[in-house]
Amino acid sequence: MQTDTLFEAEPQPESRTGENRFIGLAADQVSEGDAPAVMAELARLIERFNREYYEFDAPSVPDAEYDRLFELLRSLEARFPHLKREDSPTSRVGGAPREGFRKVRHSVPMLSIHTETDFSAEGARAFDARIRRDLGLEETDPPVSYDCELKFDGLATSLRYEKGRLVSAATRGDGLVGEDVTENVRTIRTIPLSLEGAPDVLEVRGEVIMHKADFEALNRRQAEAGEKPFANPRNAAAGSLRQLDSRITAKRRLHFYAYSLGECSESLAATQSGVLERLRGLGFPVADLHRTVQGPEALAAFHEEAARKRASLPFEIDGVVYKVDDLALEARLGFIAREPRWACAHKYPPEEAVTILEGIDVQVGRTGRLTPVARLRPVYVGGVTVSNATLHNEDRIAELDLAIGDAVVVRRAGDVIPEVLRALPERRAPNALRFKMPQACPVCGSAVVRDEEEKDLRCTGGLFCPAQMKLSILHFASRRAMGIDGLGEKIVDMLVDEGLVKTPADLFSLDFEALTAPTAASAESGKPVRRMGLKTAENLLASLERAKETTLARFLFALGCRHVGEVTALSLAQHFRSLEAIEAADQSALLEVSDVGEVIASSIEAFFKEPHNRSVIEALLAAGIHWPTPSAPAASSDAGVAGKTFVLTGTLPTLTRDEAKDRIIAAGGKVSGSVSRRTNYVVAGAEAGSKLAKAEALGVAVIDEAELLAMLEG
Ligand code: IVH
């Protein structure tokens, strides 16, 4: 890929104000003088994000961005304790119950879990070390048993059963008081409404989530109905559970996975893993992927295993949870503030983050395709630092409504290439620059045309553009084009990298000295290595000489004009019979050629209109490439080959595949690679395979080589 930078975000004083100024800001960059204003602004933002998240189930920023701002405020409060306000959002947890729901006080508080900040195996070791220390274990004591579970990304919910009947269900709320969602929970089909053999009072806690497939289907329905899509499955689950009208909840397919207990009138088991098995036995869904293990290395291995399986799970997880398995040990460990000492969450690096779109580069690929690439202020996402992301094409930029300088949400999940998910237009700087794709190739300056079929832009300077040169030369030299033997990928790389060849025309001015001189790099290193061997060079020069005698059809095909394959090249040659006539042809003249439709016609016209291409073509002719005047197209007749489509399969007794193909094409026929109802004949040789079977299945005529030769002569 060759790149050119087209648009730079100007240094924008405005982008350093408002919400965007917090991007990439660290606490120690804030002076005491600036701190009060920065802290007030952070508090205001966090409160807004809290409302978006807890009240409306519609966050405008990824969790990682929220966490970062929250941490920023916390560290500023630690640095300047006298500036900490009493109503700071850092001294609040969770959200208030939504208006309209009855409030429920949890008989046993719904706690949060401590999150290990280290995403690596170190996080698992730190947790184990802390547990051993808190339990007063020596190095020589045996390893601790842990239950490893998935960390579901949904809505914590508590289900209360009395005498085996579901009597109430509540969201977590602020941990002490939640919202009564009993009616809504009753619509979740996998939640048992009654239990056999359960304790008199049993509170089962777990997560209400939406499966990824159901989330996508829901968003499609939202879009069809002109409603706003949900940002992710967790918000969709929350928005669906926290509905005042349970008929709406019933229409959304929600799931519940159990993972712990609240109030319970008798003990279910002596271990956490035992509790999960009992819950499963009572009819609650419990995730299959959980495991009892010993010691820190096994914790880290589970963290990794779940990461590998993450993409194929039906629901989203944002990490794993480790819990001391022995409930007696849990009781000994107890709680600190509102977090149990016996558990921790070991998360995965955030997959979404906010950063600034600093510019858009346009890259030109080997086939001439122009791809806009977002240049981003470096941001940590999906476990790596990302500084650019593909924007695919201009339609995608319009769809995202991007302007340079925008704050954007970037996503990188697993090994998938990073992408810009959306912009945050409410934060747009007033001087943000709109982007337009260039009308000339940023690498070679040739005209750019839009390929409607593929919705992308392409450079038309195929014969001239350095970005496309290696591929164009390989195609030019290929067997069915100019047929230059000995010009494979390695040699083309060398010729272009050594600067010997810039266009296909330069091939014909290569000489023995240039080909066999030492490579530039080896000459510098003092150990000269020839660009190519003496014999290879001689052979190449000879085949270049031979290739000068060709046909107009081969030459046209070799030029590599987009959409002009062998068959079209032959049709063009037979119709126009001279290169000059083709160069001069306009759309309507081109459309008269059989096989040429509008897409092909405009591609041909653009190719020959491009002055860069014309000068390369002139240079090729000046180098001595020539051909006989082509014959007029053979008239199509029932008996002949002209106008018929053939498929070759198996080994023919005397002709090679290429010879057979050449002769069919020369006689005005077509050769296709696969059998369809449009195939007229399948020519079958020895060991013909599936194509023969398909021909028979479709009732296509099957002939042998002798019959083909007869038709060709015929
Ligand atoms: S146990 C006392 N297990 O993580 C610990 N929580 O901050 C009680 N979560 O909102 C929680 N998966 O909803 C536990 N396998 C799991 C979990 C899990 C997700 C959530 C839970 C809570 C948060 C804890």
CATH superfamily of the largest domain: DNA ligase/mRNA capping enzyme
Structural class: alpha+beta
Count of DSSP E strands? 27
Count of alpha and pi helical runs: 25
**Radius of gyration (Å):** 35 Å
- Average pLDDT figure: 91
What is the multimeric organization of the chains shown? single chain
CATH class of the largest domain: Alpha Beta
Distance between termini?
Answer: 50 Å
Instruction: Tell me the β content.
Output: 15-25%
What coarse outline follows from CA principal-axis ratios?
Answer: elongated
CATH topology of the largest domain: D-amino Acid Aminotransferase, Chain A, domain 1
What composes the largest sheet?
8 strands, antiparallel
CATH architecture of the largest domain: 2-Layer Sandwich
Segments where pLDDT lies below 50 for 5+ residues? Answer: 9-16
